[in-house]
Amino acid sequence: MALGTNGYLLKEERLGEILPALTYLRFNISAADPVRYAYIMGCKEEYFYKVCDSIKKCVTIKKDQGLSVTLGLQMVLMPDFKDQIIPIAKLGKELGVDYVVIKHCSDDEKGTLGVDYSKYEELSGLLKEAEALSGENCLIKAKWSKILSNGRRRYSSCYGPPFIMQFSGSGLVAPCGMLFNKKYKKYHIGNIVDTPFKEIWKSERYWDVLNLIASDEFYARTMCGTLCLQHKVNEFLWDLKHKDATLKEMQVAPAHVNFV
Fold first, then answer.
1. Pair 225, 178: CB distance under 8 Å
2. How far is Cα 107 from Cα 199, in angstroms, rounded to an integer?
3. 103 within 8 A of 81, measured Cβ to Cβ
């Protein structure tokens, strides 16, 4: 089990219960300056301090209890936020987290956010500078394969969700986070508030939805957002199904293998 959160609503008195149950806890924080944080995250400046305090407490609990949970920060980078690349890397080291990952910004199928993927290339220098700040206890890493992809996908069907299912904070189960909105209700599978996931997984509805998005009736290049969580899974599964890709035996399993 893993959790991604903006951190603001985490109850500090529950952290001692939450952290031992997780493989990793990732804080989505796209700026290291209170003013820029408020602008980018769409909230009040004081929220920045509350989130940083929660991160510090997580780091302390992990050390005190000797936990294996991985703590990290994630910056969702739009080209206009380039001024925060180096500061966010430094903030991660200052707070004591295990890693800082800098990733692209996914847009929806209509391009509502207006992300210009061609502008990521010119940020390569800054991203390499940030990665160079990595230390023994904190890895700084950019998601290069997606950042430099120009927002394109080579697969047309979605095969990934059976391998990496997503739940909304409301309990909603859907193929991916981009489909949580009620306007995508035709792809909603169930809700763990009402039904145990094991029952949802065994239901006809589960496979009706997953078979639909893996079929010719669903065209992933135009009917869903860009560079989603399942993007890399889909690339491999597409090549495995339609090309000559082979599944190689791992000599050493990577960290968090169940989330790869």
1. yes
2. 32
3. no
What is the block-wise mean pLDDT of the chain (260 residues), using blocks of 10 residues?
Answer: 91 95 95 95 95 97 97 95 96 97 89 88 95 95 90 89 89 92 94 96 96 92 85 90 82 80
CA pseudo-torsion sign 245, 248, 250, 253:
positive
- Write down the residue that tokens 């998005």 correspond to: 213
Predicted TM-score (pTM) of this structure: 0.83
Q: CA 31, 56, 40: angle at the middle one, nearest 5? A: 15
* pLDDT tens digits, 202-244: 999 999 999 999 999 999 888 888 888 888 889 989 999 888 8
CA distance 241 to 237: 6
Dihedral, CA of residue 254, residue 251, residue 249 and residue 229, to nearest 10:
10
Distances (CA, A) of 176 to 49, 185, 208: 30, 12, 15
Tell me which H or E stretch contains 86: helix 85-95
Q: Is 243 exposed, middle or buried (0-12, 13-18, 19+ CB in 10 A)?
A: exposed
Q: In 37-138, which ranges are E strands?
A: 70-76, 99-103
Q: What are the strands, taking DSSP E only, across the chain?
A: 2-5, 24-28, 70-76, 99-103, 139-142, 166-167, 172-174, 190-191
